[in-house]
Amino acid sequence: MTSTQEAAGTGTELTARELESALLQRIILPRPADPTTVRALYLDEGTSTSLRSAAPTAERPGTVNEEQDEFVLHLTTAGGRRAEVLSRTSVRVPEHTETSFAAYFNAFPASYWRRWSVLDAVHLRLRVRGAGRVDVYRSTARGVPIHVHGEPVTSEGVLDVPVGLRPFEDGGWIWFDLSSGAEPLELLDGGWYADRAAPGRAAVTVGMPTFNRPSDCVNTLRALGEDPLVRDVLTAVVIPDQGTSKVRQQEGFDEAAALLGDRLRIIDQPNLGGSGGYSRIMYEALEHTDAEFILFMDDDVVLEPDSVLRALAFARFARTPMLVGGQMLSLQARSHLHAMGEVVDRHTFFWQLAPNTEDDHDFAVDSLRETLWMHRRTDVDYNAWWMCLIPRVVAEQVGQPLPLFIKWDDCEYGLRAGAHGFPTATVPGVAIWHMSFVEKDDSSDWQAYFHARNRLVVAALHGPDDPRAMLLDSLKRTLRHLFLLEYSAIALHQMAMRDFLSGPKALFGSLPTALGEVRAERSRHVDGTVHPSARDLPEPPIGALAAQLWPEPPQGRVAQVKALVGALRHQLRPTAPGAAERPQRNVPAEHGTWFLLSRLDGATVSTSDGTGVTFRRRDREEFWRLLRTSLGLHRQVQRSWPALRRRYRDGMGELVSREAWEAQVFSRYR
């Protein structure tokens, strides 16, 4: 194949076994059961792509926009036809049609490999049949596409296009387009390869803690076992089953288990939360397998099996041992990417989107080529444990997860690993589908306790010397919950702060008991009960529907201060007669805002997932009592912060010790 200016040398020929080890990323297509919108994650079948510094030819019809010095290439689809997916790895492009693989799962995230791997170049290898053309492109960090190489196809054969990684310091992807002529063009299989075999062993223990999601768990086991390439890298699959609805009893389990054979290990233990489950997986992997890597996954996911192979390849070619994170696609809207990555604000000590990224991106609306910000490399502090690969050497040196039950355990581990010199990369194209947090109320339901307590614990270990910015942010959140009439959430926050103030020694003991105590506390408050529907409660007064106008958010500082003052004034007034028995309004979840609910005395508010409602009632005395108590606890945390940081940091070694987990937790549940 003819080299281009940006092509790298082909190097020595690899044997078949070495080539398999050199595979970085297979070209993959949707599964038959996948919804239609998922196709946008694998193929870009849009109408055009922009190529600067290019020109139209007979083989590449298009038009020139002279004002912008831009050539617009037309992706033609004869008669509206699209590529025909033949299998997971093969596709047929109809005659006179162009299909681009500039899509989330098939474009190559070159800048991540440039930043973190030992590779200087990659090879695109395609086995094709028919007549047409293959064109390879790369993008800059600003999203500008550049044509790298073009190759005509006249018969069946293997194309090998080497591309150097030097231009990808700050960002950029590589992809290819297939265009057919008078007859169809088939991609039989293909992938992105290294020029050498991967170092180390392809050996991974996959673990999923599960709690009463046996059907989801069985589906993931089947996905792991059905693909031979994925199955071959599995040393063990460990399932800490912490629920009452057992995985072994689920329909389809026997068939899924047969695919994995003796590699599948199910461990029954009480509900010790995510951290108790993940810590058990790490413990079992270190004690009872020789796996080089440990892959954490949630149980309520839909797995793209190739993500296991991609994460493993990335980790094996990494310059130094590092955590490799998978990104989260939305289970409800399957073409949506939840986030490119997350960091921790070191002042307020709360997680947030990584700089220069956006959340909830829909590839079915805006393709990778059209999403310019996505071409910059995104660096992160940690990756959530919906999917995260941890090298064995990291687990041995950094230790076990903290005993936090749920929330912040994954974030803390990423921060701790980073402090030990083991960074985290969140890699595009390595992903699972998981329920979006837009459909959850986890900041205000029983999980509010773990959000608040564990944030403080992790901040004591890794956070600022001065906690004032963090505590001010916490107070703002307190006031917001009070205006939302979520008194149960504030009660849980206060419980969390008291438990944090008591120190680190109670963390292990609280693993099996914290959830019950939290649920009991929440049930003491009216808003802690979820009713099946607003129709099960008294209807709002006649005329309330006519007033169903939803206020717009206050814009600007003056409007926000006025709204805040008005909300506080309302808390001084007596509650309207009858509002405690009959809601004044039925409020949809999307309109359950503080600037509306702070003016009401009683309202039903739908849950985010639409399965029920809470009846929230304003209580003037309770509002001010909770606010006073919260202020006092925040002052106490601020005064005690230096001493608390020492206590938690001094106790860290015990909390993450494999021996401590064995003695205090696992030895009780054999």
Structure description:
- The chain has 670 residues and is an alpha+beta fold.
- The protein has 18 helices and 27 strands.
- The strands form 5 sheets. Strands 12, 13, 14, 15, 16, 17, 18, 21, 22 and 23 form a 10-stranded mixed beta sheet that branches. Strands 1, 5, 6, 7, 8, 9, 10 and 11 form an 8-stranded antiparallel beta sheet that branches.
- Helix 3 packs parallel to helix 5 (253-260), helix 11 packs across helix 17 (620-655) and helix 12 (487-501) packs parallel to helix 17 (620-655).
- The termini are far apart.
- GO terms for molecular function: glycosyltransferase activity.
- Pathway: Cell wall biogenesis; cell wall polysaccharide biosynthesis.
- Residues 470-667 form the Galactofuranosyltransferase-2 C-terminal domain.
